[in-house]
């Protein structure tokens, strides 16, 4: 379109007339954002020469483009000169031109992807591959680049202002508490924009832990939690939530074999869950794009607080193959997309992850970061990595039966460490332990190189994980 051509010419000319203008757009505009191929080539060379502190006069530009073999593709010497010296550009408007170009580029990309998806849907093509491509593209389009964000001095000034405001009570850090006091002592809560990985081997209680934490936050923070389960149905998850809250054996709950007293407790918990803002999505084929669209709808209502994905390795990627190498690339892509989504939405995202079975061959079965399955990108993208470990699953004679270690293996903005919870598998119920050296030995709570651990007195167990009962309404 002529308007696109004029805007692209104006951006290049404005940068050419004031080379400092490149810093207004270099973090958001790439050569492939230009509709006109020649404009993209000229912009690329002009940007490179400015950033490399090289001359940008017409003669130097033309010589550089000729050396790269792209001068003819850009229209030739006269075309390059005409665009660089265009008089239609307004000095100081580079950022405005850049926004117009970026928005136009996004619209073209979305339109093209939708067209491809429609063709695949109506032509019997690989719909999964097209859906994955659309998911990836939408996530990338929503991300904001910041290669040239701001001077350090300006960032430091903003930090100082924020610290004074925090001290004076003018602003409050938005942290979501897990409800598990020892864990919150280490993490200080879940931060907006974080990607949190919860990893464990099968049977450790990943889903139960994530559901318990989700219920805590949904109940106590007045925020909506979106729980995406690719493995369990909504019936299975609701059974776990009710069994945990009512302290009823899960197996007997599923068969209806309950006493009158247990049935009363179930009724109370179910009624109390009406005040719990937790939404279940149990589509086994969900992609990052689906999560994003659902989250944006909730965010528009101003209530979204947390997103949970159970679990990472079940999510579909680009669908280009089943080899180990391709799967690693897919998982890396999904991990990165979730991290970008957390930053875009400014909410924490918890993604559950399976761990490699290789840890079973070690003497110490406690998980390590290297045990994250399928991709090292998960460790790289994560802001917080939590591992669940139950000693009793590997040692029948363990004196710490019923206890779960929550190992904080990575914490981008704070310390690592270890919290201890109790777990009743028959109820799928996690709970907190009282603080105090007489209950949780310090050596157990802190990270240690020792393989063994000391037994813990559970006689002072407290019910820290409590959902509303009927009497609370």
Task: Enumerate how many helices there are, as a single number.
Answer: 17
What is the name of the CATH class of the largest domain?
Alpha Beta
Task: Give a quick account of the main beta sheet: strands, pairing sense, barrel closure.
Answer: 9 strands, mixed
Q: If you average the pLDDT, what whole number results?
A: 78
Going across the major beta sheet, what is the strand order? 5-4-6-7-3-8-9-10-11
**How many beta-strand elements?**
11
Fill in the CATH topology of the largest domain: Rossmann fold
One letter per element, helices H and strands E, the order comes to HHHHHHHHEHEEHEHHHEHEHEHEEEEH
Beta-strand percentage range = 5-15%
The gyration radius over C-alpha positions equals 27 Å
Question: What structural class do the secondary elements suggest?
Answer: alpha/beta
Question: Which key features would you list for this structure?
Answer:
single chain; 473 residues; DNAb Helicase, Chain A; 2 domains; nine-stranded mixed beta sheet; 11 strands; disordered C terminus
Summarize the structure.
The chain has helices at 2-17, 22-25, 37-51, 58-68, 77-84, 94-123, 127-142, 152-167, 181-187, 206-220, 234-246, 250-255, 260-272, 288-300, 324-345, 377-381, 442-445; strands at residues 175-176, 190-191, 195-200, 224-229, 278-281, 304-310, 349-354, 384-389, 403-411, 417-424, 429-431. With 473 residues, it is an alpha/beta fold.
């Amino acid at each position: 379109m002529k308007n696109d051509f004029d805007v692209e010419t104006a951006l290049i000319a404005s940068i050419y007339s004031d080379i400092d203008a490149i810093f207004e757009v270099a973090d958001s505009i790439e050569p492939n954002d230009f509709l006109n191929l020649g404009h993209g080539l000229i912009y690329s060379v002009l940007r490179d020469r400015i950033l490399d502190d090289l001359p940008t006069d017409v003669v130097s530009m033309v010589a550089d483009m000729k050396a790269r073999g792209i001068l003819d593709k850009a229209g030739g010497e006269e075309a390059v000169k005409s665009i660089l010296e265009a008089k239609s550009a307004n000095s100081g408007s580079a950022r405005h031109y850049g926004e117009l170009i970026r928005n136009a580029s996004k619209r073209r990309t979305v339109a093209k992807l939708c067209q491809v998806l429609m063709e695949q849907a109506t032509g019997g093509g690989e719909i999964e591959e097209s859906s994955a491509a659309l998911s990836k593209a939408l996530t990338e389009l929503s991300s904001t680049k910041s290669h040239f964000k701001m001077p350090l001095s300006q960032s430091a000034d903003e930090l100082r202002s924020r610290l004074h405001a925090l001290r004076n009570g003018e602003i409050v850090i938005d942290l979501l508490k897990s409800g598990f006091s020892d864990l919150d002592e280490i993490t200080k809560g879940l931060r907006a924009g974080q990607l949190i990985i919860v990893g464990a081997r099968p049977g450790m209680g990943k889903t139960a832990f994530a559901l318990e934490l989700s219920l805590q936050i949904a109940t106590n923070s007045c925020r909506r939690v979106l729980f995406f389960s690719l493995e369990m149905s909504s019936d299975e998850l609701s059974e776990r939530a009710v069994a945990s809250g009512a302290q009823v054996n899960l197996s007997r709950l599923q068969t209806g074999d309950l006493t009158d007293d247990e049935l009363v407790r179930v009724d109370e918990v179910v009624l109390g869950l009406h005040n719990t803002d937790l939404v279940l999505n149990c589509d086994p084929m969900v992609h990052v794009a689906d999560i994003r669209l659902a989250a944006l709808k909730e965010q528009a209502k101003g209530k979204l607080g947390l997103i949970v994905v159970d679990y990472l390795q079940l999510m579909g990627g680009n669908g280009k193959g089943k080899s180990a190498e391709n799967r690693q690339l897919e998982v890396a892509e999904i991990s990165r997309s979730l991290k970008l989504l957390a930053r875009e939405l400014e909410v924490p995202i918890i993604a559950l992850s399976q761990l490699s079975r290789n840890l079973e061959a070690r003497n110490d079965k406690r998980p390590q970061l290297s045990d994250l399955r399928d991709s090292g990108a998960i460790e790289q993208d994560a802001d917080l990595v939590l591992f669940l470990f139950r000693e009793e699953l590997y040692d029948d004679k363990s004196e710490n039966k019923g206890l779960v270690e929550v190992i904080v293996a990575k914490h981008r903005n704070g310390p690592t460490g270890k919290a201890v919870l109790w777990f009743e598998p028959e109820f799928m119920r996690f709970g907190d332990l009282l603080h105090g050296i007489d209950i949780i030995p310090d050596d157990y709570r802190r990270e240690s190189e020792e393989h063994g651990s000391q037994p813990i007195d559970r006689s002072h167990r407290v019910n820290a994980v409590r959902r509303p009962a009927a009497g609370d309404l």
